[in-house]
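Hi R.,

Here's the chain you asked about this morning:
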Amino acid sequence: MTRDGIIARLARQRPGRRGFGGSADPAEAAAFRRAIRGDHDLNPGITPPSTALRPAAVLVPLIDHEGGMSVLLTQRTAHLSAHAGQISFPGGRIEEADADAVAAALRETEEEVGLPPDRVSVVGRLDNYVTGTGFEIAPIVGIVDPPVPIAIDPFEVAEAFEVPLAFILDRRNHQRVEREVGAHSRSYFILPFESRNIWGATAGILVNLAEVLAD
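And the predicted structure, written out as tokens:
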């Protein structure tokens, strides 16, 4: 997949709802949330959170290496109170001072991994993703020309690493698994890469990326 091909595919993409939080009417809000991508996609009997969703944004950084693109991901530190040790995109909550989701994703990326906003060419966005923990995430796709200046925040990020885009586009690497959570069985995607398991919202967003860029 070339740079121009990715830009063309994303230009045709019409991402899911961008409302963050939905309607004041409970029934309408529930319908909105069922209609967009999220942890509930693979679990028809499980509904999205009924409380107001917290807006967040992440950057999906595509590194344009000469030999092929890769996706920059991070591993969160083990001591964090939320999603400790998990694989994630750089990003976080949208703050009042942020102009929009793009500004939030770029700000958080610079804070977490030291990548300046002027090194990122934003080329589109994927579907919003609702998590079971009550976040609605806007994934912003940006292309970065190497070399990539990385300076991680050691409080939040244990490591930054790259995954070849070709690995993500190969549907054979999208493993659907089930596990028991209390009295219920939950399904979710895992993308096993080297010694890591990419799962949760990160895996869901990567699967969406693969769908958008599929031949």
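The chain has a mean pLDDT of 83.

Let me know if you need anything else.
M.
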